[in-house]
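Thread: Newbie trying to understand structure tokens

Hi all, I'm a second-year student working on a class project, and my supervisor (Dr. K.) asked me to get a predicted structure for one chain before our next meeting. I've only ever worked with sequences, so writing a 3D structure as a token string is new to me. If someone could post the tokens and maybe explain what I'm looking at, I'd be very grateful. Here's the chain:
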Amino acid sequence: MPGAAAAESREERNGPSEEESPCAGCGRRTRESRCAHCGAALWAGAFKVRRVLGQSPYSRTYLARGADAEDVVLKELLFTLVPDIQQIEAFEREARLIQGLSHPSIPKLLAFFQEGTGVHLRLYRASEFVPGASLLERIKLDRFSEKQARGFARQVLQILSYLICATTSPESCSPSPAEPKPIRRLPGPKVARTEFPMPSAS
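---
Reply by user tm_fold:
Sure, no problem. This is what the structure looks like when written as tokens:
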């Protein structure tokens, strides 16, 4: 599995660390790779968690940093029941599909891997970090003109059109060079698709 090397490179961190680190979720200090209080990861594979970006009953999203000192977005899938082989295979299949995407407005999938076993199993996807506010956050703060709104809608439709093509006839699908390079808003009138749903965790 891609990303396995990242998990293997962290074997020495599976046990307690010599130094305490603050949990990115609740701030409590711990020597473990996962906080016993709130459940947030401090380490996953070779990625050190810096901040919790969001969470739901079935997943957490972290800002993390890899061994190359580059920031990544780390998506962690949580399970209420021990996942079966079909769920794990669905995760790997979807990750490979995303990894095959090539569009300037879609962050690259850098790695996917799993840690733990049984009820402690966690599945992870690490993607390029795109700085900037989400489109929803900007809508709450700014009042866009009709021209701006049309421009954002056009970019979103271009991304969706590429995704439909990539999942139905990938051999004939490629982003147009005329499309804006860079749903997260970058500096200037650019948007990027940064979220993809994880497989069902129920």
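A couple of things are worth pointing out once you decode it. Confidence is low (pLDDT under 50) at residues 1-12, 177-183. Residues 4-128 form a domain with the Phosphorylase Kinase; domain 1 fold (CATH 3.30.200.20). Feel free to ask follow-ups in this thread.
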